[in-house]
User: What shape does this take?
Amino acid sequence: MKSAVFVDRDGTLIVERCYLADPAGVELLPETGAALRRLQHAGFALVLVTNQSGIARGYYSAADFLAVQRRLSDLLGREGVSFDGVYYCPHHPDFGPSCDCRKPATGLFRRAALDLDIDLQGSAYIGDRIADVEPAAAFGGRGFLVRTGYGAAQAPAAAPWIQVVRDLAEAAEMLAPVDALRPPGG
Assistant: This one.
């Protein structure tokens, strides 16, 4: 089993744009590519887990989500980064039945663990909303709330076990210190 970094998309990797449906609106936050590359080089599986209630609300389609995701993957590919898995919840409790996949529920994380042979306890959970990182408590992993996106507003309500950090780059520094990336004697 391997450890993973489960990362949210909107407000964590890319600039928050309410209900993003247009691939042209995808803009990486500063240092996102370098941070993900650092984590990947440190041996973490990179897994994107995102709530996409805009689908349930009828603001955009699953095809629109996938087009935005392709744009993100293209931009990150130019940075030498790729995801090991992408999981999304298209539901919202006000617009359909309840589900086990809408964060903070753990369904998507459990599915990723089965698909990718991931150790959920040895993994990190990073996002700009407390709901993004709450699964860390369920699994015994590390939770990081970034101050990008909605994170600055949510930080005062973060539980003591949640590490509040500036951005994805700071979380990556904590998870994969430079010394850990150097070869012995290097």
About this structure: Strands lie at 4-7, 45-51, 85-89, 124-127, 142-146, 162-165. The mean pLDDT is 95. The first helix runs from residue 32 to 41.
